[in-house]
Amino acid sequence: MTLSPEATAPADEVVLEAIGLTKHFPVRRKLRDLFRREHEAVHAVDDVHLTLRRGRVVALVGESGSGKSTVARLLAQLHPRTGGDIRLHGESTGVKRGRQFRAYVRRVQMIFQDPFASLNPVHTIRYHLTRSLRIHGNAGKSAAELERALADLLTRVSLTPPERYLDKFPHELSGGQRQRVAIARALGANPEALLADEPVSMLDVSIRLGVLNLLRDLKERLDLAILYITHDIASARYFADETLVMYAGRMVEGGDSESVTQSPAHPYTRLLIDSAPDPDRLHSLRPDAADRGNGEPPSLIRPPAGCRFHPRCPAAMPRCTTDLPVRLEIGDAPGHWAACWLYDRKEGTR
Ligand SMILES: Nc1ncnc2c1ncn2[C@@H]1O[C@H](COP(=O)(O)OP(=O)(O)OP(=O)(O)O)[C@@H](O)[C@H]1O
Ligand SMILES: [Mg+2]
């Protein structure tokens, strides 16, 4: 099995793109709702744009319920979308079953938060990895080739010597080792993109860095495009090339990780950073700019009009309650933007 991508593919090539991605989950209706005209829905994800490139990590950061996992599940084709498009190498894709779905999954693999739940406790590591290699056609033609492919996978995730791990059950491994097996299983597909939904948040703090370093090593050696979902904006700075911040189903800020984490522009990003202290930080909230609201994210069934963050925003202006902010350039680094009216130069409010 060859795990390296074709030598002809340029680095930074766009692998997967979300364009105006939107997901509304219908709310289960009660009998009296049958007579209502409008149908309620959870506005979990609205108009999300993101681009995953070969050999690059994009972090998607936001608090609980902001829609991060929904974005990952949409990109993995586990949910049908309400609107927008998902393009794999420029080609529009939709949720399909059968062969086309398998072909998509081979190229775009997902890693979940809880490695214990994602591995079957009654099967050995050998079973999990063999199954992945077989399903995706990477098991080779003979028992010896399969054995080599299994050893390759475990070596890739630094579980060596492989024979020490192959015949173990998930409960015989540590949390970090289990997550490494889950990553090896994803690599069994020889994917181009990895969607990692909080891959280290269930792990002990002391082993998180090891797993992030492993993902970084895979990104570099296999030229993988990685979406890294996290609550922890400090780890985004360390691990991701680009950081996107999501609030209540919408993207509020994006740019290279250094700019977004060291010079945050959106009041929500500042709030996030303030709640995760970082001694190197250059910017912080002014003392008078404390969280105005009760600190609760808004209802996604009837999200606030205008900017969804305005009820909590220390800098909210009248137009923030009515007008949906557009992406505005911040100007300190190329590609750094915020969806915030504070940065509307036409208004002269900056
Ligand atoms: N299958 C579903 N049906 C209905 N609502 C859903 C479904 N999945 C998610 N939601 C809702 O969509 C919103 C976003 O959820 P999501 O799981 O994407 O958030 P998240 O940012 O991943 O949160 P966390 O950090 O807690 O994992 C939430 O309000 C959630 O209740
Ligand atoms: Mg989640």
From TrEMBL:
Q: What is this protein called?
A: Dipeptide/oligopeptide/nickel ABC transporter ATP-binding protein
UniProtKB keywords = ATP-binding, Nucleotide-binding, Transport
Ranges annotated as spanning the membrane: none
Q: What Pfam families does the database record attribute to this sequence?
A: ABC_tran, oligo_HPY
Give every ABC transporter domain span. 29-273
**Residue ranges of the region described as Disordered:** 275-300
Compositional bias, Basic and acidic residues, is annotated for 278-294
Q: What are the recorded Gene Ontology BP terms?
A: peptide transport; transmembrane transport
Q: Which domain of life is it from?
A: Bacteria
Concerning InterPro entries, the annotation shows: AAA+_ATPase, ABC_transp_ATP-bind, ABC_transporter-like_ATP-bd, ABC_transporter-like_CS, Oligopep_ABC_C, P-loop_NTPase
User: Listed GO molecular functions?
Assistant: ATP binding; ATP hydrolysis activity
